[in-house]
Known about the structure:
The structure is a single chain. 43% of the residues lie in helices and 22% in strands. It is an alpha/beta fold. The chain has two domains: 5-128, Rossmann fold; 134-226, Winged helix-like DNA-binding domain superfamily/Winged helix DNA-binding domain (Arc Repressor Mutant, subunit A). The strands form three sheets. Strands 2-1-3-4-5 form a five-stranded parallel beta sheet, sandwiched between helices. Strand 8 (148-151) and strand 9 (154-155) form a beta hairpin. The protein is elongated, with a radius of gyration of 19 Å. The mean pLDDT is 88.
Amino acid sequence: xxxxxxxxxxxxxxxxxxxxxxxxxxxxxxxxxxxxxxxxxxxxxxxxxxxxxxxxxxxxxxxxxxxxxxxxxxxxxxxxxxxxxxxxxxxxxxxxxxxxxxxxxxxxxxxxxxxxxxxxxxxxxxxxxxxxxxxxxxxxxxxxxxxxxxxxxxxxxxxxxxxxxxxxxxxxxxxxxxxxxxxxxxxxxxxxxxxxxxxxxxxxxxxxxxxxxxxxxxxxxxxxxxxx
Length: 228
């Protein structure tokens, strides 16, 4: 059975070969592009299941490549895992805001890289399946239709905003949401929601969830996620 096809966008040839070898060993098919311009041409001409995108590229940088991929209807749904320099939190936030799905920092373990690629593909496959009425994560159960949250079988009294915030994180478990993405998803007509307000609501949400509060994880300098 043919495995998923990965577009590797990286200008360092040695690193391309390392990534190619480790992905091919796991039965992934790999195409490589050494520049952002070449990546856009390949992505428009062929079908890929995921792009592994280095942000530090000659000429057009990875953030611009990400922006163009997400703006083009032909490639807007292509999952993107960013490869960033260690400590470049601003680039990570920018990439996630543009629509990237995950990131890995250099230097990285090939095993970790493959695991991240598999995790994103697995999440997308799960998101494509019909969602059950009740989403269960450990001792936490969320019913979006009933707007009801249970912890260890007991109902939790959440405000409408707290429920919406939790629902955003639960929509794609394990994915990192920036504060800006959370604000866009939950604010509705209320334009007074700020980054600080999100942080305050997260604190209150964790407190109300009790033992399940640990599932709401802070990704330092970036935002929040619900543990997978």
